Every structure is written in structure tokens, then in C-alpha cells.
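Title: Comparing notes on inverse folding

I've been comparing how different people in this forum approach sequence design from structure. To keep things fair, I'm posting one structure and asking everyone to reply with a full sequence. Here's the target:
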């Protein structure tokens, strides 16, 4: 009896027993937590050691620095130590304080005045060139120099200098004690501590040789961090080995204390702990895995059998063998597999029938159907019509692309169209495309290409349906050619008989007429050249006379004469070649002779046979053969031949009338088609232009709105803040500014004002034409004085306004902008002691012509166009606060109103700005005087 009857129970118990995931998760977290804490403790211990060492070095430096300050204080007090006792005092200091190698006192010029230990040869030596005499930093306090190796002791030494009233006090500090400090630091077998000065030179190291060699560690990343003032703990590489190091700083001298140790040595304990924990996790995982494998093997055995059964079903073998009884779920699954097998077999049979039905439809469609994959455009499907059209079997086509079968130009065209279809994901109709086939030559196709998309809308395949329209196209071309020929012939004279009639139909009429009337018949050109094939020709003319060169030439000449234009009736006379009786009638269109319809080759009672035999000898024909053929020529009375010729004349006239009607009808159809096509093209072009201009206008308006928002918000907000800040500085700190500072503050405020004016100018320029402007009647006699008062011209400038200014209908703000800019420019640029500005108006027909004239400096003609461009000024902006927008705004406003503006000026002769304003915007409103 099975312990479990349900797979759910079995898996539940197994996964409770085999807790692989919890083991891995807990073990991983524990491993990470323990190793991370250990690494952090090691790093903190190293940093604490470095800081402790830095504190010890700082304490070491405090004693000599305090001693030097004390000495300086004593030396500054002249009553304490007399000049003659200074050397003795220095010796006493060196005796009690071993940290100094020597002490110097320099005078104001840098010469040694006192020193200990005392050396006469050092007295009055000039030391002003030394670093300690002129420290590189501006300080009145102690200056700690860079380190060097003492020639006396061989130890690193440090120069400490302190300024005195009349010179400097110099102490040479022996740094040998630092070696002992670093040497007693124990950091594993390979770790060490080192002291490094400001330029990266090692001044204390457990290995004294490193110090003696003046080794520089400035290129080590850890040292670089310390020299930049950072206390850090980091790993770095040096001498192809990874280290963990800590940096601490000595505040007084800006020295760097590093404590470093190889990573392998520092984290050896961490590595051992990781190995122990990792081994435990692996053992627990292996144990859990064994239990899981056993359970899975027991569980998956029936699934293996189901897999084999599924492979058989996939191979087409739908007989399913039920599995032995295992568990309840497995029994249900076995029954489901049986039902699935039967359902798949039923659906596959239905699908096969559907595919066969669809295949038969596709194969029997007369148009070419093909399918390409969307990625590489290779053919994956073709029908029978496609094989017939292209001349290849589908085995040759499948897996290939257009470049394998068509010329490069055609293949490029096909591929471009395919890519367009796939990119747009819509049907593409190609009314005409030419392809080169293997057996049928060049063919013309009407093709539709359709993208086949997946459920996400991405193209998978491209379906193409092509109809061979070559014959239809040829017929259409022939018809169009005939219609084209019929629309122009009467003017050009290039019309031909075959342009008017179908020669096959005419041939049938001619054959029937000749057989019914027992006469020969043919239609020729006006020159006698045959157009149709001969009908009922007698053997004498066909095989004897026309077989000779002279006879054939004579026949053609006779046909041309007999078929000449004769509006009164048919021409009846003997043939100029053999003498048989012939008749002819002309076919004309609009008075133009197109063809001759000839009948004849009959004998009547007036035929002289002897003369005919003599003609045979003249043209070189066989006389005996000629005689025999003459016997076969039909005989007919003159009256009968006359009646047949009359019928011929009536038929020819009817053909002429029919041809003329065809010409007129073709001309009418062609003219109507041309007119319709021209109207369609014009409408399409108009719609396209309207669409394009509307789109451009909308885009421009959106850009303008966006631009105006940016200008008014994103630029003016910080500008206002700058302006307020500048005002506060000037008001609150005015007493702190010197003259230069005040000038700079004024310049800042001016620049902010200029920028604000520039933004306002840009906004004003951009709004013109895009913002609705209300219109009203404006009396310029009232507006102009108001503008002049607002401009406040100086008393040295006289402004004269003409009394006959009109009333116009416009926007008041626009007119204010025009005149205030023109008058304001004249006032601002006036360079004469007595300025004069005149505003006047003249009637020039459809326009008012206004002018603003001044006697100012004038404008060089080469700048007449430039001044109306935005941001263009004739003076540097530092000389005159101008932004170059005013005249550009004036020009734009005037142009939108329907007028123009220009300037007349020469340098030194003043300027006259002239602009026109349409009278259609003027109102005949009477003024109240």
C-alpha cells in the first residue's frame, strides 16, 4: 500500500524535508554577514591605528613648535637676553631639547647672525634664497618646510621657521625619532606604517633604507587621497600585489600617515571563515539534494513514459497506451493524454483538409501568388501561376530573393516596395511594374503587396498577388496611341489609314466586296503602296506582271493615278500597266487624302489582246505564260463595271465620313480627359499646398508659443532675481564698494536692464501677426502729440507735426509702436546742438505716405537694409543701450498692414524714414475743429 495517493502530498513532504532554498539563503546571509563584519573590523582597526600614529606624530611636533615660539618671544624682548648672549642661549636650548639639530637666527636681509651649535664659518652667510626665509605662503605664523636628509645625521630633517621683527628664527628638526615610531607598529608579517610629507616623499618607514633613498609614494592612489586631505580606507594595487590601507592626516604639517597590509594577509581570517561556512553549506545542500533527487526520481518516472508517448504523438502516431496506475493525479493525466491524442488527430485531419482546400484554391488562381519572409525577403511560397509566369519551378524559387532572378535595377525596385509595405504595415497597390521572366521575356504586372503581422503587430511575412496585364497593357497602349494619333492629325498631317481603322476589319470587308462583285480589290496609300492584302487578284497581275520589276512599278504608278482624289465620282480607266480596266475612289478625312480603294483587273469588249502581248514583251514577262493567264481574266460589260465602281465610290465616301467622325470623337474625348486630368492635378496640388502651409503655420504657432513661454518664464524669472540681488548689494553694501566696485555694480545693473529689454523686444516681435489686434479709428493729430510727450525730448530738439495728418483705421498700439520708435530713434541719435524732427504725410493714390525726418548724423547707404534686421545696431552696445529690435518691429507691423518702409539718408545729412499705409484702412471721419 502506497504511503501517498496524491502527488501534492508527496511533493509537500519532500520539499519540507529537502529545504535547499532555506539552507542556501540562510547560509549565504550568514556567510556574507560574518565576512563583511570581519572585513569592516579589520579596516576600522587599521584606520584607528593610523589615527593613533597621526596623533603621536602631532604630539611630537608640538614640543619643538612650542619651544620655537617661546624662543621667539624671548628674543623679541631685548631686556631678557642681550645680543652677546644669544649664541649661549641657543646652545643651552640644544642641550636640553634633543629634537633640534641646530637653530639659526637670520637678520632682515637673510644673513645668519646667531646659530647653535656655533660655527664661525657660518656667520653672515646669506640664507635669503632658502625656502624658509621666503615661505611660499603668506603667513605670520610657523612655516613647516618640505623634508630633506640631514648631512650631519643622515636622518630626515624638517625646517621650522618663525618670523621675528628683524628677521626669522630657524629650527632644524631631527625626524629620526619618527623611524622608531613606525618601526614599533606591528601589522602582521608584511604590514607596515609609514609617514609621508606633503610632496609624497617617505620620511619614516620601518625600513630605514626606504627613507634614505628619498622614495616617493605620490603615485599610489591611497597616498593621493591623503595628499588631497581625505582620510579613507581602501584597497589598491602596488608592486603587482593588492593591499588594504588607511590614511590619517597630521594637521600641523599636512603629512600623510598610512597603515597598509597585503589583502591576503589582512583577510586571511575572513577567508578561513568563508571556507568553513561554505563547506557547511555545501554539505547541507548535498544532503538535501540527495533527498530531492530520490523524490524526483520516484515522481518523474511516469512523466518519462508520458514524454515518450508525447513524442510518438508528435511523430503522428496517435495511439496512446495508458500508463500503469501510479497516483491519482497521474491517472487523471493519463486519461487527459488519451483525450488530447484523439482531439489532436481529429483537428489534424480537419486542418489537413482545410490546407488541401486552401492549397487547391491558391494553386488554381490564375494570378501569381508569392510569400516572402519579412526579415530577409526570401521566397517561402509560390503557386503554379507564379511558376508558369517566372519560368522557374518552386524548388528553384524557395529560399532565394529577387536578386537571384532579376536584374539589379528591378530587384532594387521590388525590395524598396517590400520594405515600404512592411514599414507602413498597410496594403500597397502597384498598378504597373515590369519584370524579366525566364521564358516569357519582359512582362507587365499589376501587383498588390500585403504585410502579414503577428499578434503584436510586427510583420512576419509579405504576401504578394500579381496579375499579368501585359496583353491588356499592349491593347491599351495601342488604343491610346490610336486616340493620340486621332487628336492631332488634321494639323500635323501625320495621320495614317491604320490609325483610323482596324485593318483586320477592313480586310474582311474588302475580301467580301471583291468576291461578291467578281473583281480584284486592294487599298493603297496615295502613292500606290499596298495597305491591305490583295483580294481576288487575277493570276495575270499577281503572278506574271507584278513578278517583273518594271511591271510592278507601272502597277503602283497606275494605282496612284486611278485612286487620286475625285469628289464627283469614281475614276474608271484602263490600267496604265497591262491595259485591263480598273476603277478607284479616294478615302479622305477633312480634305486630306489618306488612301485609295481600287478595283478592276477585268476585260471588256474594248480590250486589245495584241497590245497586251506586246506589253508583256516590253516588261520582260514570259509571253506564253502571259497569254495563258490572260485567258483567265474575267470579262464584264462596261455598264456592269460602272455600277460596281459607283458602289465602291459610295463605300469610300462612307469610310471617309466614318473616319472624320472618329477623329472628332477622339479629339473630344482626349480634350475632356486632359481637362479632367488638369483639374485633378490642380486640385491635388492645391490641397497639398494648403495642407503643407497649414502644417507649417501650426508648427510655427506652436514654436512661437513655446518660445514666448520660455522667454517670459524661464529667462525672465532668473533675470528678475539677478536684478533684485544687484539692487540689494548696491543698497546694503554701498559703503564697502570702492570706485571700481561701484562701476562694476552699475555695469551689472545695466546689463540686466539690457537683457530685460532684449527679452521684451523678442516677445513683442514674436507676437506681431499672431495675437489678435483690435482695430479702431485713430486720429493721428491727437496720437502724435501724446507720443512726443511720452518720449520727453530735450529742449534742444524741436519737433514739428504736420497739421493735415489723416484719420486711419488700425490698432492704436501698432501705430504707437511705429511712431514712438521712429521719433525716439531720431531723439536718441541726435548729434546737433539744435535738433529738428519733422513728421509729415502725403497722399500718393492708394496709400498714405508718412515720413519722419531729422537733421541728425545720417546713415551710410550700405547700412540702410541692415538697420531693419532684428538685433542689428550701428553703435556698440557699450556706447549706447540699444538692442536692435525697434526698427525690426516697425517693419513687421507696417508689412502686416500692407505697407512698406525705407530710409533716405547720407552720413552727416540727417535721415528720413518713409513708410506707406493703405488707404483702405482709412476712414473719412470728419474732425471736430
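Reply #1:
Here's my take.
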Amino acid at each position: 500500500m502506497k504511503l501517498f495517493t496524491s502527488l501534492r502530498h508527496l511533493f509537500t513532504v519532500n520539499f519540507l524535508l529537502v529545504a535547499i532554498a532555506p539552507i542556501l539563503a540562510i547560509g549565504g546571509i550568514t556567510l556574507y554577514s560574518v565576512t563583511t563584519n570581519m572585513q569592516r573590523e579589520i579596516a576600522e582597526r587599521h584606520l584607528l591605528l593610523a589615527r593613533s600614529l597621526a596623533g603621536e606624530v602631532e604630539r611630537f611636533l608640538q614640543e619643538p613648535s612650542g619651544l620655537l615660539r617661546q624662543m621667539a618671544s624671548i628674543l623679541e624682548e631685548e631686556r631678557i637676553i642681550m645680543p652677546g648672549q644669544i649664541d649661549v642661549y641657543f646652545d643651552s636650548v640644544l642641550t636640553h631639547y634633543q629634537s633640534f639639530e641646530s637653530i639659526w637666527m637670520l637678520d632682515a636681509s637673510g644673513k645668519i647672525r646667531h646659530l647653535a651649535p656655533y660655527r664661525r664659518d657660518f656667520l653672515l652667510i646669506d640664507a635669503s634664497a632658502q625656502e624658509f626665509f621666503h615661505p611660499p605662503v603668506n603667513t605670520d605664523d610657523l612655516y613647516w618646510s618640505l623634508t630633506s636628509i640631514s648631512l650631519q645625521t643622515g636622518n630626515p630633517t624638517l625646517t621650522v621657521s618663525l618670523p621675528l621683527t628683524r628677521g626669522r628664527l630657524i629650527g632644524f628638526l631631527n625626524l629620526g625619532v619618527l623611524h622608531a615610531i613606525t618601526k614599533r607598529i606591528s601589522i602582521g608579517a608584511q604590514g607596515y606604517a609609514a609617514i609621508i610629507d606633503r610632496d609624497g616623499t617617505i620620511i619614516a618607514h620601518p625600513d630605514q633604507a626606504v627613507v634614505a633613498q628619498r622614495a616617493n609614494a605620490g603615485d599610489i592612489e591611497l597616498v593621493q587621497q591623503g595628499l588631497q586631505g581625505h582620510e579613507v580606507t581602501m584597497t589598491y594595487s602596488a608592486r603587482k600585489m593588492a593591499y588594504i590601507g588607511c590614511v590619517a592626516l597630521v594637521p600641523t604639517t599636512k603629512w600623510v600617515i598610512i597603515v597598509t597590509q597585503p589583502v591576503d594577509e589582512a583577510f586571511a581570517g575572513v577567508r578561513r571563515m568563508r571556507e568553513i561556512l561554505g563547506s557547511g553549506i555545501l554539505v547541507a545542500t548535498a544532503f538535501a539534494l540527495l533527498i530531492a533527487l530520490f523524490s524526483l526520481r520516484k515522481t518523474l518516472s511516469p512523466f518519462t513514459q508520458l514524454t515518450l508517448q508525447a513524442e510518438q504523438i508528435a511523430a503522428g502516431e496517435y495511439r496512446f497506451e495508458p500508463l500503469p496506475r501510479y497516483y491519482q493525479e497521474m491517472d487523471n493525466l493519463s486519461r487527459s493524454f488519451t483525450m488530447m491524442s484523439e482531439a489532436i488527430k481529429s483537428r489534424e485531419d480537419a486542418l489537413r483538409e482545410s490546407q488541401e482546400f486552401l492549397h487547391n484554391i491558391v494553386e488554381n488562381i490564375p494570378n501569381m501568388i508569392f510569400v516572402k519572409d519579412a526579415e530577409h525577403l526570401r521566397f517561402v511560397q509560390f503557386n503554379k501561376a507564379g511558376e508558369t509566369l517566372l519560368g522557374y519551378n518552386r524548388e528553384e524559387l524557395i529560399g532565394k530573393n529577387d536578386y537571384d532572378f532579376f536584374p539589379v535595377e528591378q530587384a532594387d525596385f521590388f525590395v524598396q516596395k517590400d520594405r515600404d509595405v512592411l514599414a507602413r504595415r498597410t496594403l500597397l497597390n502597384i498598378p504597373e511594374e515590369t519584370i524579366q521572366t525566364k521564358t516569357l521575356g519582359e512582362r507587365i504586372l499589376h501587383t498588390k503587396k500585403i504585410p502579414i503581422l503577428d499578434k503584436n503587430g510586427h510583420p512576419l511575412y509579405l504576401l504578394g498577388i500579381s496579375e499579368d496585364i501585359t496583353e491588356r497593357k499592349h491593347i491599351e497602349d495601342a488604343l491610346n496611341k490610336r486616340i493620340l494619333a486621332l487628336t492631332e492629325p488634321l494639323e500635323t498631317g501625320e495621320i495614317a489609314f491604320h490609325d483610323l481603322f482596324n485593318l483586320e476589319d477592313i480586310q474582311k470587308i474588302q475580301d467580301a466586296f471583291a468576291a461578291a462583285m467578281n473583281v480584284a480589290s486592294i487599298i493603297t496609300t496615295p502613292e500606290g503602296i499596298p495597305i491591305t492584302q490583295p483580294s481576288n487578284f487575277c493570276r495575270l497581275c499577281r503572278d506574271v506582271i507584278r513578278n517583273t520589276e518594271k511591271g510592278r512599278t507601272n502597277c503602283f504608278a497606275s494605282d496612284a493615278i486611278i485612286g487620286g482624289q475625285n469628289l464627283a465620282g469614281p475614276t474608271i480607266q484602263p490600267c496604265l500597266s497591262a491595259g485591263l480596266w480598273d476603277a478607284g475612289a479616294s478615302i479622305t478625312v477633312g480634305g486630306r487624302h489618306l488612301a485609295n480603294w481600287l478595283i478592276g483587273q477585268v476585260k471588256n469588249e474594248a480590250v486589245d489582246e495584241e497590245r497586251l502581248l506586246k506589253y508583256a514583251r516590253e516588261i520582260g514577262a514570259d509571253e506564253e505564260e502571259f497569254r495563258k493567264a490572260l485567258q483567265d481574266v474575267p470579262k464584264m460589260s462596261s455598264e456592269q463595271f460602272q455600277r460596281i465602281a459607283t458602289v465602291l465610290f459610295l463605300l469610300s465616301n462612307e469610310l471617309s465620313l466614318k473616319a472624320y467622325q472618329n477623329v472628332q470623337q477622339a479629339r473630344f474625348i482626349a480634350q475632356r480627359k486632359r481637362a479632367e486630368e488638369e483639374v485633378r492635378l490642380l486640385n491635388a496640388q492645391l490641397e497639398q499646398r494648403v495642407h503643407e502651409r497649414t502644417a507649417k503655420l501650426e508648427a510655427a504657432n506652436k514654436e512661437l508659443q513655446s518660445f514666448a513661454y520660455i522667454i517670459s518664464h524661464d529667462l525672465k524669472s532668473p533675470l528678475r532675481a539677478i536684478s533684485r540681488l544687484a539692487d540689494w548689494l548696491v543698497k546694503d553694501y554701498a559703503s564697502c564698494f570702492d570706485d571700481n566696485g561701484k562701476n562694476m555694480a552699475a555695469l551689472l545693473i545695466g546689463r540686466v536692464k539690457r537683457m530685460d529689454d532684449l527679452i521684451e523686444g523678442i516677445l513683442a516681435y514674436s507676437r506681431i501677426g499672431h495675437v489678435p489686434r483690435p482695430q479702431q479709428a485713430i486720429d493721428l493729430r491727437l496720437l502724435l502729440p501724446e507720443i512726443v510727450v511720452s518720449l520727453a525730448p530735450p529742449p534742444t530738439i524741436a519737433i514739428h507735426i504736420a497739421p493735415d495728418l489723416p484719420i486711419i483705421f488700425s490698432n492704436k498700439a501698432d501705430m504707437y509702436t511705429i511712431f514712438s520708435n521712429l521719433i525716439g530713434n531720431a531723439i536718441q541719435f541726435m548729434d546737433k546742438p539744435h535738433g529738428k524732427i519733422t513728421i509729415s504725410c502725403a497722399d500718393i493714390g492708394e496709400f498714405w505716405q508718412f515720413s519722419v525726418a531729422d537733421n541728425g548724423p545720417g546713415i551710410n547707404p550700405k547700412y540702410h537694409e541692415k538697420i531693419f534686421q532684428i538685433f542689428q545696431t550701428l553703435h556698440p552696445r557699450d556706447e549706447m543701450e540699444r538692442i536692435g529690435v525697434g526698427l525690426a518691429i516697425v517693419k513687421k507691423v507696417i508689412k502686416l498692414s500692407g505697407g512698406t518702409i525705407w530710409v533716405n539718408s547720407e552720413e552727416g545729412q540727417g535721415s528720413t524714414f518713409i513708410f506707406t499705409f493703405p488707404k483702405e484702412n482709412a476712414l473719412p471721419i470728419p474732425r471736430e475743429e
